[in-house]
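Input chain follows. Return structure tokens only.
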Amino acid sequence: MTSSIPNNGSAGDSGKEHGLSTDNRRRKLMHYILAAGAAQVDELMTAFGVSRMTVHRDLDELQRQGVVRKIRGGATAEPSTLFESDFRYRVHQGQREKHAIARHAAHYIEPGQSIFMDESTTVLALTDYLSACLPLTIATNGMSVVDAVREVDGIDLIVLGGNYNRRFYGFFGLYTEQIIASLRINTLFMSASAVVGTISYNQNQQVVKVKRAMMAVAEQRILLLDQHKFSMSALNRLADLREFDRVIVDDGLSEDLKTSLLEQQVKLEIVQLNRESKK
């Protein structure tokens, strides 16, 4: 006779409860908290069919990784600066804005061109809108982009290998920069972590160096920014917005900020979330 183990914090938890391995369960638990913004321990016990002790162990590990923050009785996805830079967090944020921006940006790709795509989650959304642009050569340091396009007929993929960074899900460092320097690319699509005034920033020095290397060899530079980047902060200066041929932003940007950027000669294009338009 088989009896079920109650979710009462017993020490008899196995590493593969509810049909999931520990790693898979923690990944799903992370996504659950990111989507909800916060979750209580009792809620997670019910959702994942595991004990209180298991939930606490999982939250301890996710907090150690910098993915969630434990609070009394649960955990929150309230971001720290370090957490905001983590790919696993960024990929779930601002999806509506990112896809509107990416759909608009795809209009600037012509069949037969070569493009840089950086490791950002905003640029990742562009992979959903490339079907009308083929054939195409894509050079990228982002593993998420590689995963999205590697089997697509009509795409010649150049992987800008180097030192792999799990946090950013991409390649960086000297070897990556050397490969980039050997290329001449039609158009660069990239993003930034934050914008203050007309200056874009990124939290990581190695990321900045790779993006700057791409900027140096691209004939056209296009920066993709959702509205939230203008209320964020990051440590390292990346580039002045006026260094880009186009800066594509969703219409959540305040009117005062739009006016200020345009007055400072930023080549701003505003994308409506319900329809695309250039301003």
